[in-house]
Amino acid sequence: MSSILERASTRSKAPVLAASPRTLHLMQPHERARWDAFVRACPEATFFHLSGWQQVIEQSFGIKTWFYYVQQDGVIQGVLPLAEIKSRLFGHSLGAMPFCVYGGVVASDPEARAMLDAAAHELAQQLGVGHLEYRGMRRAHPDDPAWHTKELYVTFRKAISGIDEENLNAIPRKQRAMVRKGIKLGLKGQVDDNVERLFTAYAHSVHRLGTPVFPKRYFALLQQVFGDECEVRVITTDDDQLVAAVLSFYWRDEVVPYYGGGMDIARDVAGNDFMYWNLMQAAAARGCRLFDFGRSKLGTGAYDFKKNWGFTAQPLPYEYKLYRASSLPDNNPLNPKYRLFIKLWKKLPLPLANALGPHIVRNLG
Question: What Pfam families has UniProt attached to this entry (predicted)?
Answer without folding.
Answer: Acetyltransf_6
